[in-house]
Amino acid sequence: MGDRPKLIVHGVDPKRWCEVHGFTPFTAPCQECGLPLTTSLPMVWGKLRGMRAPVCVCGNTRTPYGVVLPEELGDLP
Fold this sequence. Notes:
The protein is mainly beta. It has one helix at 14-21, and strands at 7-8, 27-29, 36-38, 41-45, 48-52, 65-68. The protein has a four-stranded antiparallel beta sheet with strand order 1-4-5-6. A two-stranded antiparallel sheet has the order 2-3.
């Protein structure tokens, strides 16, 4: 996800976060061990909003994530 800071947003309801930002959680395999990981942690990355999966039990920190751009900003530049 580049060099810009990524912030996990604590204290918000993930379901509500997805509703507000139009994000659909998904499950993908861990790239290290293959266990299924679900995007469940609300995340901010600059103007992007999304969800990422928690660290895998195998220790892999490079877990699946997805982001959306707010509608008022249009398409990605």
